[in-house]
């Protein structure tokens, strides 16, 4: 089975790869996984093309030589957020090996606590400390190349330096959002159905974004139910348990696979009580209670059959609450009412009253339109200062059995034009197309009603004369 088609099903429509494989297995059809992963790698390379050191530079970098020389470095960040380690190699901004950096580049550490961007979790930042021998340098990001964790740095560093690597405390917030994403995934499947499958995700220290397969927009009630479900699981104080299992054992245990991930013979399975169990290589909280408040901020469509939820938790959720509180206070101040809904209802009533008063005032000053007759048809061509000219035309059409009417109304330097025809030979749309250009405008409409706009109010008198001449010729 064509792997590129399987990729499109996964990427565009959110159809999970493992389900495609299961369906093909039942028919004894083999899936071209190499083609699938080739498309996936190409997509990832394209998304990285915005870095300095473009996708092309990443593809031609010295990664193969690095891996042959040192193998895959050890990630110790599941249990440690700092460790003493050694700089094995350095790459410049074009991913070429160098002996020293004095600016931006990439560092390859023997053991690293920095998590490399993967599975939707953003890469770690932090610092490298030289124990006082020279200034600390910043770790700006961490990414994975050919299974190796490399951290982007900026500063003065040399191959062989002994350093202490310290992960920035934003990792805590990233983990909270990542664990909240697992609970959100489980909640959506529980409340909307098992057709829900992950189609992409992003977890950083300030928000989470989760794409999933679903045929329609979620209702406000469904969003509230999902939000409440996740907060309930957070407050259940479930311990996060991570186990290393074979892929088959993990699937047997009910673990859900994540979008776009390649899995070896053994996988990490992250479990939060009975609420959630997923295959995941990311880092997570030790207990759901660490996530804190969870808030959905937006639900939208991504593509056909794929929806997106954006949400916040922990410190970001508290900041969101504070923003909402400040907005509510501002609304109360503007409404001069401590009960915003009561204030809004009062304003609506005032607007309704003002509209009624305005309509009455306009009616009392309404101009009496002067009608004449051409070949047995009533005609009105006039200028009005106030009122709704469409409404005036409707009233005239109701008053007379047959009529051709055109009204002009100044709006600053511009002019509104509308006309109507009832039981006459004149077609309103054609009539207005002849007259509007006199005023520097244009318009059109149906045979019974048409409207237009003009730019030159000084030529209304000329337009009225031409409108009457048109009627004399066509009635």
Describe the 3D structure.
- Residues 1-323 form the Alanyl-transfer RNA synthetases family profile domain.
- Keywords: Aminoacyl-tRNA synthetase, ATP-binding, Coiled coil, Ligase, Metal-binding, Nucleotide-binding, Protein biosynthesis, RNA-binding, tRNA-binding, Zinc.
- One of its GO terms (molecular function) is metal ion binding.
- This protein has 475 residues and is of the alpha+beta class.
- The chain is built from 13 helices and 22 strands.
- The model is unreliable at 48-54 (pLDDT under 50).
Question: Kindly state the mean pLDDT as a whole number?
Answer: 89
The neighbouring-strand order within the major sheet is 2-4-8-7-6-9
Amount of beta strand: 25-35%
Q: Could you name the ranges where pLDDT drops below 50 across 5 or more consecutive residues?
A: 48-54
DSSP helix fraction: 25-40%
Number of alpha- plus pi-helical segments = 13
Number of domains: 5
**Roughly how many Å apart are the termini?**
73 Å
